[in-house]
Amino acid sequence: MAEANYPDDLIYHAEHDWARVDGEQATFGITWYAQDSLGEVVFFDPPEVGSTIAKDASYAEVESVKAVSDVIAPLSGEVVEVNEALGDAPEKINEDPYGEGWLVKVKLSDGGEADDLLSAADYRNLLDA
Amino acid sequence: MSTEATLRRTPLYEQHAELGAKLVPFAGWEMPVTYEGIREEHAAVRTHAGMFDVSHMGEVEVEGPGALAFLQLALSNDVAKLAEVGGAQYSCLCDESGGVLDDLFTYRLGGDRYLIVTNSANHDADLAWLGRWSREFDVTVRDVADRYAMLAVQGPHARAIASATLGIELPPRMRAVPVRVGNRPALACGTGYTGEDGVELLIDPEIAPAIWAELLDAGVVPCGLGARDTLRLEVCFHLHGNDLSPERNPIEAGLGWCCAEGTGFLGSAAVAKARAEGPGEKLAPFKIEGQGIPRQGNPVLAGGEEAGIVTSGTFSPSLEIGIGMAYVRPELAEPGTEIEIDVRGKRRAARIASKPLYEKER
Predict the structure, then answer these.
(1) Around B29, how many Cα atoms within 13 Å sit in the side-chain half-sphere?
(2) Which residues of A are less than 8 Å from B231 in CB distance?
(3) Is B230 on the interface with A (CB under 8 A)?
(4) Which end of chain A is more exposed for a tag (fewer CB within 10 A), N or C?
(5) Does B38 lie at the interface with A, CB-CB under 8 angstroms?
(6) Which position has the higher pLDDT, A129 or B163?
(7) Taking the model in full, what pTM does it have?
(8) Are the CB atoms for B228 and A65 separated by under 8 Å?
(9) DSSP string, B145-187
(10) Nearest CB to B315: which of A45, A61, A65?
């Protein structure tokens, strides 16, 4: 998508990641800002299903033609699904960062961590600062 | 940030900003890395015509009765082969031990007048080096970087579009001719850094914005340094600072073809020795076999042991795989050799390939 967009139903990590929490499970991805800064994504190196990821730590890599970037986990938990479609179509991360460009689904280990994350309004303020 | 104030801007900075380019610091300059996307720009050069603002590159003029003798000392190639005015030649600038200080093109402008195009990161050091060694010669070494803007127009249709748009006759490959562009004197060179046909135009900075706009209107696609890097790496052109450095000699780098030790150039003894004895390592192009994108500094492994280092690596937009060049032990440099690249802790299968990594289907 060409224009900056930060949906209100997501929560955000300051390292430019989003989470969509649904009960004990959440979907993670990178924000519009992150994919725009990186440029055309050509490779997503996912974590393994079943691996444990920790809030604020890197759990995957996304690469553009020019650069590689760590992806930071907004919340802690166990990876239950990775977006296999990105193997053939990593550009989905650019085209639809909150939809088809999702990265992983995670079974959360500490629901309380979500309180540390930013609302869409707060994240927009962070970008404007 | 205070450092931004010190970044230099080319005469086309406003045009880049207007086009929404992503601007990044590069060798002290604020340069466009991409406009609409590296892959799109890369494809434009491979299939149509793209243009790069390379005004950050430096120019040095060498003039005087001693110019040829001086350049034979300073440059690795046999400058006497630039017998005719209008000749162009690629060379290394070596130190006394054969280390590569820079790689550059030299154009013969007149009887004893030559123009050398330097890499921007090395321009000041090159100038000091040339100045120092010129003292024994009846020659003047002049920094003329501010006199030129430089546009590289590259691609299968680049020559035709540039010629028609600017109303000039362009030189054949590896030749340079004086022309008038925007009613000012300019130099048109049949050279480039993309593996495609095209021209490099050295023009008056004042008219650069108007010329850029004319070429843009003619359908030439603006391209940034991102595509410049993927294009050059697909055809295995060296980048100084990555694949060339004062710690490497031209033989290791596969640039023996532009070294004429018989001229006695600075470093020629070391280069002759490396040629005779064989280099300790060789620069070799490779392709990743499956997933992964190699990057500069990644270790090369052979049989599980460290066997070299990647000096350039990227995703190839044409081949849609990871590609690169690495210094490896000579016995590993043969095309077909299986190696692994340690990409941030993950071993990626790769194979040494022959040059160029990308070749147009014929």
Answers:
(1) 22
(2) none
(3) yes
(4) C
(5) yes
(6) B163
(7) 0.94
(8) no
(9) GGG-EEEEEESTTHHHHHHHHHT-PPP-TTBEEEEEETTEEEE
(10) A65
